[in-house]
Structure formats: C-alpha cells, structure tokens
Amino acid sequence: MPETGQKNVQTRSQARAPPNFEGDDMKEYIKSEVEKYFGSVAFQDSLREFITDSVKMACKNLVESIVVPIKDEIQALKTELIEVKRKCNDNEQYSRRSSVRIYGIPEGPKENCIKKVCDFFQKEMDLAFAEEDIDRTHRVGKKNRDGNRAMIVKFKAYDSKRSVMKVKKARLSNKTFSVYEDLTFLNRKLLYLARNEYKETPVWTID
C-alpha cells in the first residue's frame, strides 16, 4: 500500500512538470502557448475591457480639452449677446423718449397727420401745440377693432411729451381715446406680461 501511494504521487508530479524542450522545439512550444492565450476567451475579454477603458478615457480627455472650452465660450457669447440686446433696447427706448402713441383717432384718406394730432390735443386734452412743436407723426401697426391704426407722435421737445403724459389720465378717463409712451417691442411685451400678472394692480410706464 505505501509503495502504491508513492507511485501515484510521483506520477502526478511528473504530469505537472513542464516539457523538457530545447532549441527550436522550445520556440514552437512558446509560440503555441502564446497563440492559445491570444485566442482564449480570457484574453479577448481583457483586451475588450482595455480597449473600452482606453476609448472612454480618450473621449473624456477630448471633451475636457475641446468641447468644454467651446461650451464655455458659447455661454460667454450668449451672455454678451444678452447684454448687447439690453443696451440696444435701452438706446432705442431713449430715442423714443419724446414720442407717444395715440389710439382711437379716426383714420381717413390722405389725412394730414400733424394737423390731426394737434386738433386732438387741443380738443380732447386741452393742450395747445403748434405744428412746429411736432417733429413727425404717422400711422403705425394694424387696424384696431374700431378700424383705426395707432398714431405715433414725436415731439421736438421732451417737455411737450411730459405735458401730455401728466394730464392724459384725467382728461381721457371717460373717452374712447388712449395715449401711451412709445415703447420698444421688448418693453411693450414686458408691459403686457406685467399687466397680465398683476391684473388687480394698475401698471404703467414712465420714461
């Protein structure tokens, strides 16, 4: 019995021993083992994981080095554009500071707009303006429900416009006419939104 056990141990030890190759046989053996490993599932999984991780890292580095700076630059340009638009709106509104819009004046063919607004101010608002006080005036926009377009009036002097705005509420309260400051498109939109938001509170503009 002891001899049999010893023989079995020796047999297993001999089976685990590496081949005793020399020269070209050793090269062929190594080549064969390498080819087997390269073709194994374990190697393919390791290679796939390595390539995946490498691509992810390369993409991350690409984003950090190219995409992120471009994104920051775009955001900076957007911020700058907003500021430019704000300044343009402010400048445009300033150019309108001597102007008003009048709604409700009947529109007729070949009308003399300057004479018509002077008559309106005299009759409806008890304000006397000479035609020389008006820089220019004309119809603008679409026709309202009454079939008349609004009239823009630009005074030569800012004080003339202020005198209109001071008395308009008292002198037009029970009439079908209305007078507003001549606002830019953006400011008209803001005024519209504010009035919808605060329906129970009077909302108006000044300068």
UniProtKB/TrEMBL annotation:
Segments of this protein annotated with the region Disordered: 1-24
Segments of skewed composition (Polar residues): 1-14
Domain of life of the native organism: Eukaryota
Protein's recorded name: Uncharacterized protein
Organism: Paramuricea clavata (Red gorgonian)
